Amino acid sequence: MKKLADIGLIGLAVMGENLVLNMESHGYTVAVYNRTVAKVDKFVDGRGAGKKFIGAHSIEELCATLERPRKVMMLVKAGDPVDHFIDLVLPHLEPGDIIIDGGNSHFPDTIRRTKYVENKGMLYIGTGVSGGEEGALKGPSIMPGGSPDAWPHVKEIFQSIAAKVESGEACCDWVGEGGAGHFVKMVHNGIEYGDMQIITEAYQLMKELLGMSNDDMHEVFKKWNTGFLDSYLIEITRDILGYKDENGEETVDFILDTAGQKGTGKWTGISALDLGIPLTLIGESVFARCLSAQKDLRVKASKVISGPQAEFKGDKQQFIDDLESALLGAKIISYAQGYNLMMEAASEHGWNLNYGGIALMWRGGCIIRSVFLGDIKKAFDNNPELPNLLLDPFFKEKVEQAQAGWRRVCATAVENGIPVPAMTSALTYFDGFRSERLPANLLQAQRDYFGAHTYERVDKPRGEFFHTNWTGRGGDTASSTYNA
Ligand code: NBP
Question: What is the torsional sign of CA 196, 202, 205, 207?
């Protein structure tokens, strides 16, 4: 065994254990430490037995076993524990050493921590790691940001343990300064919420409107997984619908219909509101989880409020094909909106994001991995300045092809009283996005009427503001103009 370790890890839980096993299997020596120190020996003598691990029983010991520049990675519960460990580690580091947070930290915390650690002379990386337990062990998607000078020192380790696409490229590259890595991971999680929501909407329509069995739906997802929708989430949905327990019961039918969430979808929605970006599909996906969690209230309402009786009269196979189009159309909108958010954040925070590179990072290893992301990479390779995915010729054509079926699905769902918030909000966004003129002229008139907020005119240059005394009773004083 080498005398010094290539990297140190704090946090031997699900992610930490599997990630260090992955590093070790790629030839690295890893020093490990955990708050509950007993877990160190348990790991080194258990899953880590006979491997290149150095068990450390204190932070001081951990730092003393590391090659320089020291690299200390934390995979601990997001929030205060990260700040706590930064302060414990810093006194044992030297200028140029690197602290890495691989947890699901909120990007403003990472911006703050990068500045804090840099001010002490050390370097900081905040990185998203996606793929759960299996990904951590076999190859996750890794999205690092923070101090650019730190990247050359961790690049080889990170890229060797990351998932690889067919061409051999690693699903890991430098994202950008400060909180860029955690921001991109946050948007990844938001997109994950959206992909999951549209799949559940297709499931509900097949189940309640078409009256399909889980086995029938399993077959549909199996087929979809061979086409443009080929992705990890379609694949696991196929498997969940085909799963039967030891008594032959279909487990999915016994699961309570209240969705949990840990907050990254909500953060994505809040960030979109803060930046003024119409991230409608992800927003609806977060709210759909909130509504599902109001189970008791929904049960009460279901007893007293009536709606249409769902009844399907059309061609069933045609409707299943339309559902595939609806999933495709909505998914394209979701990614277009997610990229729109990243572009705005990049401009706000001064990040130089590589949008094709981000698609490549998400192409393998992570929960939203899909064939589709390869096409997004191509779109940004063809035009790195692409302002919106819907303006890429390939995606424009795909979404135009999908829209007829997608519209039929939304109309049928609405007529039959089956909720499809993500599919319909995406379609509405699409119609708004392709509209040269929206009814905001009337809205501006209303604002000017009650609050003298002023408006611009179609027959005058942009930037000139007008106020009308609509009632003849108001004065001529206009309110100051601002954009929220
Ligand atoms: P957890 O999020 O459950 O964190 C466990 C680790 O945090 C243990 O080392 C634990 O020490 C330490 N810890 C806790 Br809990 N509270 C602490 C405190 N107050 N002070 C110091 N240390 C504390 O582990 P995980 O599921 O492996 O996730 C690690 C990070 O990776 C999290 O940020 C998570 O959001 C993120 N992540 C998780 C997944 C996943 O699939 N699980 C996927 C992607 C990202 P102890 O052993 O002494 O209790």
Answer: negative
